[in-house]
Amino acid sequence: MDQFANRKIYVGIFILLIGLIFTFRLLYLQVIDSTYKLSAESNSRRLEIVYPARGLIYDRNNLLIVHNQPSYDLKISPFELEAFDSTELCEILNVDIQTLRDAIYRVKKYERERRNPFIKQLSPETFGKLKEKQYKFPGFYFSERTLRKYNYEIASHLLGYIGEVDSSIIKKDSYYELGDYYGVSGVESTYENFLKGEKGRRYKLIDVRGKEQGTYREGRYDSDAEMGKNITLTIDAELQQYAEKLMKNFEGSVVAIEPSTGEVLALVSAPFYNPSLLVGRVRQENYEALKKDSLEPLFNNATMALYPPGSTFKTANALVALQEGVIRPTSSFGCTLGYYARGVSMKCHSHKQPLELVEAITNSCNAYFAHTYKRTIDNQNFETTEDAYNAWRDMILSFGFGEPLGIDLPSEKAGFIPKSSYYDRYYGKGYWKAHTIISNAIGQGEILTTPLQIANFAATIANRGYYITPHVVKDIEGVDTLSREFMQKNWMKPDTSYINYIIDGMDGAVNGEGGTAHIAHLKDIVICGKTGTAQNPHGTDHSVFMAFAPKENPRIAISVYVEYGEWGATYGAPIASLLIEKYLTDTIAPNRKWVETRMLNSKPTNKKEDEKKY
To answer: DSSP 3-state assignment of 583?
Structure first.
């Protein structure tokens, strides 16, 4: 008997414990934790995403460049569908009946399809017609979004464009869902996390048939969308607009930088396209057309095209040679229409000779810089040619060549300053000397740079020896400071005391007797510049020019590349001078209107096959 009594006690205690566990669990679920409460009620509510407007984009003078316009997607709620005139709806939407049937079938069968639009980005005309007759089509409703709108249809490569996310983007960032949009290129891409904003949520109460019955829980779980942060660019919209006007008939680029800050004042890649082409329902169609265009308007020449720097590079070689002590400012070399030695032939134009350094820069003497480069690479202070070359390369890299500068735009190219191992592979270790690679003396050979790097080098000279990493965003709403890299000075390795000889030579090139860029001369502004001709193995050479102004306290540094323009003074120098004049004086002097007219009406052509970008 005692044995059975004990069993009853144990069973009773067990049942009591189970009861207490269930009681406390039920109390927790109903009173304390609301998660399961919401889950249990999920069948009586519908979530609607409220999409935020993207941040606005201004230029450095607070001119509004990019803003937003309303756009509407048409969605289908399968539970609210009732009989409707499908023919009339198809006529309004300009779709066939089978497309409509397929859409209805999908939203009825697949839960995820209910959140995807039936038709994205209705035109204002279509939206207006359908909104007026929406009562005739139960189960069809609108979801509001915004599209980009451009007050100034400029800077397409800098601004970038918006596109629909794919599965790879969704995997990287849980913020995005199918049907969302994000910045694909340009500033829209780099600053996506600031521009995109935060989505809001609206929960709607629905009945057992799926029909909307009002706000769920009086909006307790709703949240408002938060607009993206506004961004102020460094570019001057009017200068950018004028640069694009001057480059409308050309292929190439313009990059203008404020030397003291590294702020990009204008960035043009020609040919360019109207950024409005990549907005709305026509975006994909226009994108495919631009992608197939043989002139490659989607390619950003300013940051991605690689060209030989031509004679602009002579100034860099001069600084290295001065630092290594292989020449002095007073060193002079003769030039009999070129440089000829040990089977090497390098032609030059007619000018007085012999020349010292400043005059050699002014006259862009090939022979002078061939002698200079030979002394640098065959420098007896180093044990081997390789050691001398590596020392030269190390100083060249300090000018911002051979590596990405780090501009806040995607896909910047590094350029190419070969390592000594590159020449070892081609010629054999110990079997190459200065004459083997003498083309580097005048910015040809294997050397490749981007237009951005040349403009940055002009800024380095203007700053008397340093540059600040170029950047295109000046201010972000609510962010105190930009990245530290956009504020620190990057000093060149050669002694800055040598820079004045380079500046005087560039002054002479524009303003002195025999200067190669006299067409860039302005009456009241001292421009310091250097012409270049970038050899093109596929046809006519490219016109290159870099400059800064004024000579004292410079406010703008610039590079201009005109493909197939042949001589730096033909197109590069006049375009740069017009942009400098426009930026510093806000006008073009009457006596220089002929230069503007010639640039606007010119169109160089390639005399051989079209060149492909590197």
So the answer is: helix
Q: Is residue 219 part of a domain?
A: yes
Residue 155 has φ and ψ, to the nearest 5°, of 55, 40
* CA atoms of 399 and 149, how far apart (whole Å): 39
Contact 385, 378 (CB under 8 A): yes
> Number of structural domains, the chain?
3
pLDDT digits (tens, 9 = 90+) for 545-574: 999 999 999 999 999 999 998 889 899 999
540 close to 548: Cβ distance less than 8 angstroms? no
Q: Which of 61-75, 142-156, 197-211, 226-240 has the lowest mean pLDDT?
A: 197-211
Together in a domain, 256 and 224: no
Task: Give the tens place of pLDDT for each residue, 409-461.
Answer: 999 999 999 999 999 999 999 899 999 999 999 999 999 999 999 999 999 99
Distances in Å between the alpha carbon of 202 and those of 48, 218, 219, 254, 486?
A: 5, 11, 7, 47, 41
* H-helix or E-strand spanning residue 518: none
181 and 300 fall within a common domain: no
The residue out of 216, 232, 248 marking a domain boundary is 232
- Higher pLDDT pick, 23 / 146: 146
Classify 30 in phi/psi space as left (phi over 0), alpha (psi -120 to 50) or beta: alpha
In angstroms, the CA 305 to CA 311 distance is 18
Determine the Cα–Cα distance for residues 26 and 31; give it in Å rounded to an integer: 8
* Domain region containing 106: 46-232
Shared domain check, 247 and 217: no
Q: Is residue 455 within 8 Å of residue 383, measured between CB atoms?
A: no
Residue 55 has what DSSP assignment?
P
Which residues make Cβ contacts (< 8 Å) with residue 366, sequence separation at least 6?
A: 311, 335, 338, 339, 346, 347, 348, 441, 442
Q: Are residues 318 and 366 in the same domain?
A: yes
Domain shared by 272 and 348, yes or no? yes
pTM of the full structure: 0.87
Token pair listed for 313: 């590079």
Domain end: 203, 232, 261, which one? 232
Q: Please indicate, yes or no, if residue 556 is contained in any of the structural domains.
A: yes
Residue 90: C-alpha distances to residues 76, 78, 129, 234 (Å): 14, 17, 12, 47
CATH code assigned at 176: 3.90.1310.10
